[in-house]
UniProtKB/TrEMBL annotation:
UniProt KW keywords: DNA damage, DNA recombination, DNA repair, Metal-binding, Zinc, Zinc-finger
Keyword Zinc-finger: yes
Lineage: Bacteria, Pseudomonadati, Pseudomonadota, Alphaproteobacteria, Hyphomicrobiales
SMART domains: TOPRIM
Transmembrane segments: none
Residue span, Toprim domain: 83-178
Organism: Peteryoungia ipomoeae
Gene3D superfamilies, per database record: 3.40.1360.10, 6.10.250.240, RecR Domain 1 (1.10.8.420)
Gene name of the encoded protein: recR
Protein function: May play a role in DNA repair. It seems to be involved in an RecBC-independent recombinational process of DNA repair. It may act with RecF and RecO.
Zn finger limits (C4-type): 60-75
Superkingdom as given in the UniProt entry: Bacteria
Name of the molecule in the record: Recombination protein RecR
Length: 201
């Protein structure tokens, strides 16, 4: 059994950092040591920023985004086309689409996908909120931007079925060859999807 070389406060910091996605125990130790070495420049400001985030971060009651205001910055942005809603699985997907800057639309965060094996049903996701938003009127298009997994496609079909009859156009992201991708390196499913979704040039 390894001997302890630090106090319990540092051990706790390492254990908490190790729970962050992308950081294992070894990376967490390196990150903790770096923070401690830069105590005044990093550790103090980080602790303060985390405390402020803990106090002020909210979940948007409209779309499910995380922000320090409710409704969030995206929902209150008058420059956005609020008649188009992009449906995403998680906030990280919303942020990724915003980084791409391809569309200036509203969003709706589901909070995951349907997964009966994991016990995740419709009531565990923010699907009812989406249906309510569309039912109020004023929405002309729903873009379903979920991952191309079995769970993602199941969720997309469920949403499509429950929006039927609400007079809204429903589209989904195209699947296929990525920009800069080489055909020889792509899997058969991606190639099949690309052929089915071919477009005129």
């Amino acid at each position: 059994m390894a001997k302890r070389v630090t106090g319990p406060e540092i051990e706790k910091l390492i254990q908490l950092l190790a729970k962050v996605p992308g950081l294992g125990p070894r990376s967490a130790r390196r990150a903790a040591l770096h923070l401690i070495k830069k105590k005044d420049q990093l550790l103090g400001p980080l602790g303060h920023a985390m405390g402020e985030a803990y106090d002020k971060v909210k979940i948007c009651s409209c779309c499910g985004n995380v922000d320090t205001s409710d409704p969030c910055t995206v929902c209150t942005d008058v420059q956005r086309d609020q008649t188009v809603i992009i449906v995403v699985e998680d906030v990280s997907d919303l942020w990724a689409l915003e980084r791409a800057g391809a569309m200036n639309a509203a969003y709706h965060v589901l909070g995951g996908t349907l997964s009966p094996l994991d016990g995740i049903g419709p009531d565990d996701l923010n699907i009812k909120g989406l249906i309510d938003r569309v039912a109020k009127g004023g929405i002309r298009e729903i873009i379903i931007a979920v991952n191309a997994t079995v769970e993602g496609q199941t969720t997309a079909h469920y949403i499509t079925d429950h929006l039927a009859g609400l007079e809204v156009k429903i589209t989904r992201l195209a699947h296929g060859v990525p920009v800069g991708g080489e055909l020889d390196y792509l899997d058969e499913g991606t190639l099949s999807a690309a052929l089915r979704a071919r477009t005129a040039i």
